[in-house]
Amino acid sequence: MKNDQGSPHQSHIESGYGKVKEGDEPTPPPEQTAPRSTSHLSATETGERLFARFAYAPNALGHCGPAAAERLLAIARGEEKPGDLTPIASRFSGAWVYQVVLGQMLDLDPLSPEIVTGYWIGSEAVDRIDRADFLRRLLAVIDPRAGSYWSHLDDTLLPEATGTHAFHVLAVYPWSRLAPTGRPEPLAVLNGCLIRPGVVHKVEEKVNNTDHAELHVTVRTRSLTWSDGFRWDEEEMVATVPFGDHLAPGDYVGLHWGQVCVPLTLGEATALDERLDEQIALMSHRHA
């Protein structure tokens, strides 16, 4: 996977994640970053395969959706034609509602690559939607289903409203409100559930518990911490590569629940990084 090129803006991707530590083989820096875009993913993958890539990890862990991990894995690997994925996708109670609402607002199919990418990691089209209208439509669906644990689901969410997975994780889910308790679970869930960009620094095969070789990558990324507000700390982590992606040091990836869910171009990784920063900033009023 080659890095794309574009504007000279320098993001955390280059200035933070990509730093070479002592003893590393140096990775040549990209010449320049790309404009904020997710056109590569939506132009090269079907919406069904993209959905399978993003949804597989939480589904395999039992966090959301029906018992469909084997099929999602086969679709994400390209081993099985997806056919109509709606019966599976529609049982992801969070993601599907967003994709339906975004599809209505942008006049696109909920499983089109533009909508799938726009929800899970953001896009320029989703950036431009009327956020008040989006929140009104979203709450009309999810609020009647919510119990007392979700009493924060009302128009006070408007300052934070975006049509993305990051909004769902950080504002709709209750976990960000539990971070000040000091318990480890909220941050563990937030960092697992958020799709975070990272830079590959090492690729290796490891034998798993079924005696099969499994590809692992060491990735530099950022993780959320709490200290009178949310902060990002640099992190080095080992992630599995479940979909057979051919990765090399210097490649950019999206991380979801400890797995590489998608390879990213530099422009896509930079845009995702910036959108995560924006979402954190939008919810800072809660902790002022």
Concise overview:
With 288 residues, this protein is α+β, with helices and mostly antiparallel strands.
Please, could you describe this protein's structure?
With 288 residues, the chain is an alpha+beta fold. The protein has one domain. It has helices at 12-17, 39-44, 47-60, 69-76, 86-89, 95-106, 113-120, 124-127, 131-142, 165-172, 175-178, 184-193, 266-282, and strands at residues 196-207, 213-226, 230-240, 252-256, 259-264. A five-stranded antiparallel beta sheet has the order 3-2-1-4-5. Strand 4 and strand 5 form a beta hairpin. The longest helix has 17 residues, at 266-282. It is globular. The termini are far apart. The model is unreliable at 1-10 and 18-35 (pLDDT under 50).
Short key terms for the protein model shown above:
17% strand; 13 helices; 288 residues; alpha+beta; 5 strands; disordered N terminus; 5-stranded antiparallel β-sheet; 39% helix
